[in-house]
Amino acid sequence: MAKFITIGYGDSSGYERTDQAVRDAAHDHDAELRARGAVVGIAGAPVQVRNHDGADVQVTPGPFLRADLPIAGFGIFEADSLDEAVRMAAGTPCAVAQGVVEVWPLRE
């Protein structure tokens, strides 16, 4: 079974515009993913870490990545194929609440 990383993008206005029943179903879907062993979480405040040439660790508050929507959460899960991973991601809160989810195959 392959591992996949998901990055969910979304904001509170899109979330709040989505019908409550749809949001509830998406949160139930996340609970099912967790029950299957997925790691699913809401994004906290990021920091950037640099250690060029292994000589000096520098930590800068804030994201490096810029996008139209903020990063809202992450997931790590196993699936038999990319198609299955896409189906799994399609039911998550970011996907259904006016956001977007990237699905990245994890090469180990």
TrEMBL record:
SUPFAM superfamilies: Dimeric alpha+beta barrel (SSF54909). It comes from the Bacteria. InterPro entries: Dimeric_a/b-barrel, YCII. Residues 15-107 form the YCII-related domain. It holds the Pfam family YCII. Belongs to the YciI family. This is YCII-related domain-containing protein. The lineage of its organism: Bacteria, Bacillati, Actinomycetota, Actinomycetes, Pseudonocardiales.
